[in-house]
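To: structure subgroup
Subject: Chain for Friday's discussion

All,

I'm putting the inputs and outputs inline so they're searchable in the archive.
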Amino acid sequence: QDVAPMDTGENATPTTNSFKVNGIVFNAHILKSGHWPHYEKETVKLPSPLYDCIELFQKYYCARTEARVLRWAPTLGKGVLESTAFIGNPKIGTVELTVNTYQICILLMYNEKEEIPYQEIYDGLRDQAAPEGTMYLDDESMKQLLLTLCTKRYPLLTKKSGENGDVYALNVNWAPNKRQKTLPLPSAKITAKETRGAVHKAVEEDRKHAIESAIVRVMKHHRTLSHQHLVVEATDKLMQLFTPEPRAIKARIEELIQREFLRRDAEDQSLYHYIA
């Protein structure tokens, strides 16, 4: 094959979440859901070699951690492709391309043919058997993605007009000036304002949990406490992380009462009791 996933070593082992499958070195990065960055939850139809890697790791991981569930975010991935297709520079036989998952999927299509219509590329990244509502790249984002493969600096593909729309051809005459190349990523889809909003929302959710945890710890220790003393002690416990607003603490107290962690005293509404 002209374009193939890179083989980076013989010592990859499943114990380090890195292993080798049919010549592909696959690395899985596992984080708890709260530690992932904000990203568009889009998906992509992976080529069979990459899908096989995921299937193998899924079986390996789930057999050892039965209580956990893996949720894949393949569009956050990246990889290195080795290619001997580009012959413009005879001094460089094989080029190593560091690319993201979308770019990998597109470039691997050129193992089958040298010219591919835009619509075929667009459809090729979508799984027709996927559940309704599955999110994929939209038309504008797809064109931005293809543009990263057609830049003046990295002209891996060339675009020309065809009878039924644009056609993208593999530019075998590309002459890279060095063996290793890192391709640019498409422009971010979300604005700075949207990013700040998502981060602020995530921080607020984290703080809600932290406040509730502090309240429960205080009440578990005292069993019965007045509203004022509870606010003071909960604030004291949270000061190393952030300074909570009294109204935020009051809101979390009300939530804990509804969930039956706490209850108000029947005679004194400013007095709380911890429910074991």
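Points worth raising on Friday:
Helices lie at 48-64, 101-108, 118-124, 139-147, 192-222, 227-238, 246-258.
The CA atoms of residues 198 and 236 lie 28 Å apart.

D.
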